[in-house]
Amino acid sequence: MTTLDLQRLSPAERRYELDLLTAGYVHALDDGDLDRWPDFFTEDCRYKIIPRENYENDLPLAIWYCQGRGMLRDRITAIRETQLYAPRAMRHVTGNALVTECAGDGMHAVTNYAVYESTLDRTSEVFNVGRYLDRIVVEDGQMKFAEKLCIFDTSLVPTSLIFPI
Amino acid sequence: MTTLDLQRLSPAERRYELDLLTAGYVHALDDGDLDRWPDFFTEDCRYKIIPRENYENDLPLAIWYCQGRGMLRDRITAIRETQLYAPRAMRHVTGNALVTECAGDGMHAVTNYAVYESTLDRTSEVFNVGRYLDRIVVEDGQMKFAEKLCIFDTSLVPTSLIFPI
Amino acid sequence: MTTLDLQRLSPAERRYELDLLTAGYVHALDDGDLDRWPDFFTEDCRYKIIPRENYENDLPLAIWYCQGRGMLRDRITAIRETQLYAPRAMRHVTGNALVTECAGDGMHAVTNYAVYESTLDRTSEVFNVGRYLDRIVVEDGQMKFAEKLCIFDTSLVPTSLIFPI
């Protein structure tokens, strides 16, 4: 493991490293490997799932709000131990990442996503689409999400938002 | 802003620059930032939205046809000032871009896309899928679309094709 | 055509070459250019389409199973000459590829995909989503799939699985 220095990477290298981070992130979720999910975040991260309308009107309501990796771990424990839900598979397909800023110790990026949900006895369906607004820093020699906002496009709260987006 | 020279870029660099162009393009549309849309095109560009069946049979009918950046601007004005429609969010997820040719002053590329539409009181739905057939040149030191054909897969004209694809 | 040496490529170069392979693969399918499909595989390849549940439980049932490029060609002949189906267009949108291993003569990668189906008189619909689990080697100087597993997320066998995924 080599230590990354965001400022010394070329724009193309930064995008490549971000792609790796995002690919690792979505495959951990899609593989149901939820215990690995907090590892993609910094210790004092912020993770939110927000309807687009709220985000654009600066309304504070988030469907999910986690502050710090500890809260991410609590979420996973809750999903595993206290929630009841029919088995389902999630699948993320992400578009081109766009690094919008790289300054100081971090960079900002936006990436469109579509998440599909499949239950055993149904076909696959579009579950949630929107964009990730990420702030990425290097911690412990690796890129991590210091902030990840999942801004989804409907105002409807998904009826079955069990897993992270 | 440095001047790009398509012929001097490596294939990987060309693909990276194209990814940037496409990412900027789709985020301008998805952010509803329509005034920036014409900026991704050359002054004498051609922009068309065509059903796949027509395209494959060399039929001339396009659902949208714009010749020149001025017509793109007129379209945006029309959308803003004369059209009535329920608020909706569009979201583009694009696949891997494939540069199919790079010769002379430009390059050709194909990129699959899926566009999702979300209205306030509904879930997100697949709106239009197809491929971009792009011809890209450098103008004013930046990659721009000299031609962008959006070939969509159904023969049905989308009932609510309000925004560019 | 230059001969690729996977072990001498940087990780970013490997990912780029894999993107080219995948983009070529999906565009051959989406263009209906089925005769080119076997060319993306090695002579003694393995190609399978498997429901996720079977894959995760090590159940042997595959919806499609082809061993060797000859069987891929037979499949194409069968599709062209013996199967009856309404005309339809397929469209693949793939997410970020993640190379999970590169050792010896090959590399392994995982890529999420969403396939949309459009028939002439319908809108486009989500047809099949899942992930490609690929083993890629260099044969005849080009990257090819030595193994391609298409693990799809539902347990339902698609009612109209006519074309390769």
Which helices and strands occur, and which strands form pairs?
3 copies of one chain form a homotrimer.
Chain A: H1 11-30, E1 41-51, H2 52-56, E2 64-67, H3 69-81, E3 88-103, E4 106-119, E5 125-139, E6 142-152
Parallel strand pairs in A: 1-6
Antiparallel strand pairs in A: 1-2, 3-4, 4-5, 5-6
Describe this structure in words.
The structure is a homotrimer of 165-residue chains. Chain A has 165 residues and is of the alpha+beta class. The first copy, chain A, contains three helices and six strands, in the order H-E-H-E-H-E-E-E-E. In chain A, strands 2-1-6-5-4-3 form a six-stranded mixed sheet. In chain A, a hairpin with a 2-residue loop joins strand 3 and strand 4 (106-119). Chains in contact: A-B, A-C, B-C. The A-B interface holds A 12, 15, 52-53, 93-98, 110, 112-114, 126, 128-131, 152-156, 158 and B 12-13, 16, 19-20, 22-24, 26-27, 30, 89, 91-94, 114, 116, 118-126.
